[in-house]
Every structure is written in C-alpha cells, then in structure tokens.
C-alpha cells in the first residue's frame, strides 16, 4: 500500500490598500466645532489628537485624519463633509 502526498496550494492574501482621510482648512468653521466633529466621526478619537489634527489643517492647509481601508476612508470623509467640514481621501502611498 502506498501513500500519496497531496500538496495544498496556499493562497497568499494581499493586504488591502490603505487610504488616508485628509481634513482641509477653512477659515469659517470654529476650531472647537472641528474638534467635536472629529471626535464624533472617528472611533476612539481623543480630544488631544482631534485638536492636533485641527491645528495641523489650520496651519498647513491639510492634515491626515486617519489611514484605513478605502471603504472606511470613503465613509469617514463623507461624514466629515456632511458635518460641514472639507475632507477628501487618497491612496496612502
């Protein structure tokens, strides 16, 4: 009696590409409102991190809010836009 060895081909999963959500500065929206929206929109966003993001956008024009999968990035960006902020998302190269 012989035993055959069957090779099982492994499927390597490629990690999903990541996207960054960008917050764009505007001079009309109150800073505290931006902080509040960031904390409500992004899970586990701490006040200090929200303030840091808001200040970065204010001083530099844009700030990275979060890096995540495309589906989540689209959702977060849309939520920020619906709240009156200006947000976009793009591949994280």
How is this structure best described in words?
- Helix content is 41%, strand content 23%.
- The protein has 93 residues and is an alpha+beta fold.
- The protein has a domain at 24-88: Ribosomal Protein L30, Chain: A, CATH 3.30.1390.
- The chain has a three-stranded antiparallel β-sheet with strand order 2-1-3.
- α1 packs across α2 (47-60).
- The longest helix has 14 residues, at 47-60.
Properties at a glance:
3 strands, 93 residues, alpha+beta, 3-stranded antiparallel β-sheet, Ribosomal Protein L30, Chain: A
Task: Write a concise synopsis of the structure shown.
With 93 residues, this protein is an alpha+beta fold.
Helical region count?
A: 3
Mind telling me which CATH architecture of the domain at 24-88 this is? 2-Layer Sandwich
Top-tier CATH class of the domain at 24-88: Alpha Beta
Q: Enumerate the strands of the largest sheet in spatial order, edge to edge or round the barrel.
A: 2-1-3
Query: What sequence of helices (H) and strands (E) makes up the elements?
Result: EHHEHE
Shape: elongated
Helix content: 40-55%
Q: Which residue ranges are poorly predicted, with pLDDT under 50 across at least 5 consecutive positions?
A: none
Radius of gyration, CA atoms, in whole angstroms: 20 Å
- CATH T-level topology of the domain at 24-88: Ribosomal Protein L30, Chain: A
Mean pLDDT: 92
